[in-house]
Amino acid sequence: MDVESVEKECGALGGLFQAIVNDMKCSYPVWEDFSAKATKLHSQLRTTVLAAVAFLDAFQKVADMATNTRGATRDIGSALTRMCMRHRSIEAKLRHFTNALMESLITPLQDRIEDWKKTANQLDKDHAKEYKRSRHEIKKKSSDTMKLQKKA
Known about the structure:
Layout: H1 3-67, H2 73-151
Helix pairs in contact: 1-2
């Protein structure tokens, strides 16, 4: 391989690496925005769960009142109680989803975003040093080769 092709390859690889690091750096705002929106969704879902619990408690009181009366309203009361139980299972699933959203997505993502920032910055610094050193070595070897060719 001649020196010019080595320099071209070095430049191409260095440019590719730099493009990847720049893409990583440009993606931080997108990930942070996603994390913020997920946190807001979690907060709203928690509020929804609390409202659902309050509603279902009041609904259960209506069902109990209807069940404890005489006549045909007993049947209505038991039907309302069954409906309330079904909705409580939905509320439990929503609560589970809300907790999983925070524990399995938001918290790990927020932790990793900081790590990604530090890693990308360190990679960029290390690459810049190594790239300059490699370019200097190539130029030195190139000039040494030229001198040897002139002597020969």
